[in-house]
């Protein structure tokens, strides 16, 4: 049993297909099948049930993959620690972040990070939060930057606060009337706007879960006229008068800030934490720790 075999078996388990795993690792399918058979013969037990489609792990296979992930993490942690000890300034960090948040947070973060760690390559995986967390647990990313999951995280994950971000109600000119606002005119009253046509993000996005909770708290069901995958798209449509929407503040900051839109905060308690998440047992090297601190410095000070 060697590290190469551990990697091959875990990738096949993730892909649920020998063909897909072979393509991902740039190895021929027959060669990968031979490696799997060799490992199974050496262990004297089957790791995969090939009668199922897609192929699934046997009970022994589940134990193998679980332990393989731990061994590979320990190997990577050791490499990182030794690099730190040797004061190395080269390496790679893979950051998982939703695509629009990447456009908002990464330009300034990378500019500052590169000034101190010019030899460290930053790679990104851009997807919705649920996909990014799965990728993190598989060891495909080092850090994930997403809003706090109110349902909680698994015990293997650790999160740190970067900054707190308000949620904003956005609508076209003339849509919001005085009776829809609090007495001081600062906040929108959700119970007064539930009948408006809403543009909301599709299920699986963090803001969709937040919006669904807002309507549940009001005892109402949103009048959805459109679902989208983009907060920026939702803001532009709402601003045109097509409907109302609720988005994180960074979706309007990209266009120059609140003064550019007819938008209102939802109230003191309607905000979420934007966190960085990593595997609790992983070793954060100096570059990763600095990357986190740069984000905190740049964005926490804006609140």
TrEMBL record:
<keyword id="KW-0805">Transcription regulation</keyword>
<dbReference type="GO" id="GO:0003700">
    <property type="term" value="F:DNA-binding transcription factor activity"/>
</dbReference>
<dbReference type="GO" id="GO:0003677">
    <property type="term" value="F:DNA binding"/>
</dbReference>
<dbReference type="Pfam" id="PF03466">
    <property type="entry name" value="LysR_substrate"/>
</dbReference>
<dbReference type="InterPro" id="IPR036390">
    <property type="entry name" value="WH_DNA-bd_sf"/>
</dbReference>
<protein>
    <submittedName>
        <fullName>LysR substrate binding domain protein</fullName>
    </submittedName>
</protein>
<dbReference type="Pfam" id="PF00126">
    <property type="entry name" value="HTH_1"/>
</dbReference>
<keyword id="KW-0238">DNA-binding</keyword>
<comment type="similarity">
    <text>Belongs to the LysR transcriptional regulatory family.</text>
</comment>
<keyword id="KW-0804">Transcription</keyword>
<dbReference type="InterPro" id="IPR036388">
    <property type="entry name" value="WH-like_DNA-bd_sf"/>
</dbReference>
<dbReference type="GO" id="GO:0005829">
    <property type="term" value="C:cytosol"/>
</dbReference>
<dbReference type="InterPro" id="IPR005119">
    <property type="entry name" value="LysR_subst-bd"/>
</dbReference>
<dbReference type="InterPro" id="IPR000847">
    <property type="entry name" value="LysR_HTH_N"/>
</dbReference>
<dbReference type="InterPro" id="IPR050950">
    <property type="entry name" value="HTH-type_LysR_regulators"/>
</dbReference>
<feature type="domain" description="HTH lysR-type">
    <location>
        <begin position="1"/>
        <end position="58"/>
    </location>
</feature>
């Amino acid at each position: 049993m060697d590290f190469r075999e551990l990697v091959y078996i875990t990738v096949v388990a993730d892909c649920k297909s020998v063909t897909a795993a072979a393509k991902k690792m740039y190895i021929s399918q027959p060669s990968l099948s031979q490696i799997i058979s060799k490992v199974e013969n050496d262990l004297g037990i089957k790791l995969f049930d090939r009668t199922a489609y897609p192929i699934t792990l046997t009970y022994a296979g589940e134990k193998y993959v679980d332990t393989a992930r731990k061994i590979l993490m320990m190997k990577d942690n050791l490499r990182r620690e030794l690099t730190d000890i040797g004061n190395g300034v080269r390496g790679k960090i893979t950051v998982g972040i939703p695509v629009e948040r990447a456009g908002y947070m990464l330009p300034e973060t990378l500019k500052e990070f590169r000034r101190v760690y010019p030899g460290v390559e930053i790679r990104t995986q851009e997807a919705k939060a649920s996909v990014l967390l799965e990728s993190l647990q598989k060891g495909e990313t080092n850090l994930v930057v997403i809003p706090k999951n109110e349902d909680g995280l698994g015990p293997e994950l650790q999160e740190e606060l970067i900054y707190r971000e308000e949620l904003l109600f956005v609508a076209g000119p003339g849509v919001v009337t005085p009776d829809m606002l609090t007495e001081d005119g600062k906040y929108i009253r959700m119970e007064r706007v539930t009948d408006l046509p809403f543009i909301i993000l599709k299920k699986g996005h963090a803001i969709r879960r937040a919006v669904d909770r807002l309507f549940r708290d009001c005892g109402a069901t949103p009048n959805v006229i459109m679902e989208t995958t983009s907060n920026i798209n939702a803001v532009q449509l709402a601003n045109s008068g097509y409907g109302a929407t609720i988005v994180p503040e960074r979706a309007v900051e990209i266009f120059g800030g609140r003064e550019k839109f007819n938008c209102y905060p939802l109230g003191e308690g309607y905000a979420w934490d934007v966190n960085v998440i990593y595997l609790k047992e992983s070793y954060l090297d100096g570059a990763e720790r600095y990357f986190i601190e740069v984000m905190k410095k740049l964005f926490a000070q804006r609140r």
